[in-house]
Amino acid sequence: MSRTDPPLRIRLPEALKVQIQLLAVENRRSMNAEIVARLAASVRQPEASEDNQSAALHEIERLRTELRSAESERSAHAMRLRKLEYDIVATNDSYKELSLRVAALENHEE
Question: pTM of this prediction?
């Protein structure tokens, strides 16, 4: 911004003008510099929004990948659990069968 930039006259409500004056003093800027800074920030805002949107889409994709991995892992754990449950049942059946054989042998020896 320089003095060679073309001037622009605007009308402001008095309350807004006072707010801008106070903000300019707070930020150690002229009123003109305060207005220019705020207008520039509001014009750049859509770019920031696009950056935020891009970051959000990237995060969504990362979470989807993580979810797929977790679902795959859960599926593998579920299969392992079913196999262990089957092994337990088979072991119990074998134990019962063995117990019956031992009992039969004991009865046969008597």
Answer: 0.41
